[in-house]
Amino acid sequence: MEIAIVVVFILGYLAIALEHPLHIDKAASALVLGVVCWAIFVLGVDAIPSFLQHEYAVFQDENTMLAADEFKPMFLEHRLLHHLSEIASILFFLMGAMAIVETVDAHEGFRVITDKIKTTNKVKLLWILTVLTFFFSAVLDNLTTTIVMVSLLRKLIEDKKTRWFFVGFLVIAANAGGAWSPIGDVTTTMLWIKKQLPSTPYIIQHLILPSITTVLVPLIFLSFRMKGNVTRPAARGEHEEGNPASKKERMTIFILGLAGLLFVPVFKTVTHLPPFMGMMLSLGVIWAVTEIMHKRKSMAAKKQLTVLWVLRKIDTGSVLFFLGILLGVAAMQEAGLLRQAAGWLDSTIGNIYAINLAIGLLSAIVDNVPLVAAAQGMYPIAAEGVFAANGDFWLFLAYCAGTGGSALIIGSAAGVAAMGLERIDFIWYMKNLSLLAILGYLAGAGVFMLLSA
């Protein structure tokens, strides 16, 4: 069974990577990958895996009315729905963020920023956008920041391949920016919530320099290689056809959209509800405001400014692609494959720095969340030493799991979002940006180890 799941995952992964030569949309490949992996697991599992035995016993105690032969299939369905709830929270978060960003974009709200960026020089523009992305990601999180920056880049760069390069590099910047903040990346958040890294100032103090290095090294390299200027798309004039929003409305929606995105981590901290709940609240408020703002306009004038119209523009294919990938990773997790991988790393490598470096690069292939969860389960919090709260192992794990996924476009939530929104080719990213991402990743890791010595 395990071998079959791995084979299907690899074949699905190759189909996603070869999307353009095969002429099969990556969302279709991802959905087949996810569902078939689960089907193989459910049909092929002989006994409930040992690490799930406790949960299985609890499930039996809570469902005593079931017949004996119903326990296992119902428990496996229960596990699928458990993962689906986590996946759905990510998808609703993604859809909410996309809807808010598209609403701001429909009102030409990003002109507030793009009009202030006058340069067309590629190197200067890359530096400006990288700095913005790095610090936005620490506050908004890397996924939301990527969605925002993709919208900005569409206003700044007309040529598709040039824009792909900027988007791809900003994925690296977003992942690095999220790694040093408790709310910037889901894996750092996991370690923060579960008390491996309970001190926010300590996280920032020890991870910000490695994270800056992760971006700075490839950025300096590119500064000597990139030449020329970008061509900006023509901006639509105020009240020009297709842009019925006034300057005041544009500014209002931009401020409201940015405030709504910034509100999400605050809402999570105060209520302890999942982030998608804060995102849905922000979307609801913006929806209500736009309805009131445009209620006196003609249907033709306000049509494209409404959230209902914006929702039709959301790339459903990207959402389904996300669903398929996360289902496939969840099946591997349930089959115990990720735990086996983590255990193999522990027994074969042993050195904590090498283990974390390997986990980071492995997260470029499979989701970093279950890898970090497996590491949390393998190593209890110690009273002192590298495995103590705020210890070097947990700090380095946060850095590696947060930034290592940049090695491949599919290796992080930010990368998957960028791939879906801009239709970036997997092979193209690997040829043009993977080595730069790995170079920055290793440089940042080196800085962390020097500071820890």
N-C termini distance: 44 Å
Q: Determine the fraction of residues in helical runs and give it as a percent range.
A: over 70%
Structural class: mainly alpha
Q: Please indicate the percent range of residues in DSSP E strands (runs of 2 or more).
A: under 5%
Give me the number of helical elements: 23
Could you spell the SSE succession in H and E letters? HHHHHHHHHHHHHHHHHHHHHHH
Overall radius of gyration: 23 Å
List low-pLDDT spans: none
Mean pLDDT: 85
The biggest sheet, with number of strands, parallel, antiparallel or mixed sense and barrel status, is: none
Q: How many runs of DSSP E, i.e. beta strands?
A: 0
Overall morphology: globular
Describe this structure in words.
The protein is mainly α. It has a domain of 227 residues. The chain has 23 helices and no strands. Helix 5 packs parallel to helix 8. The chain starts with a helix and ends with a helix.
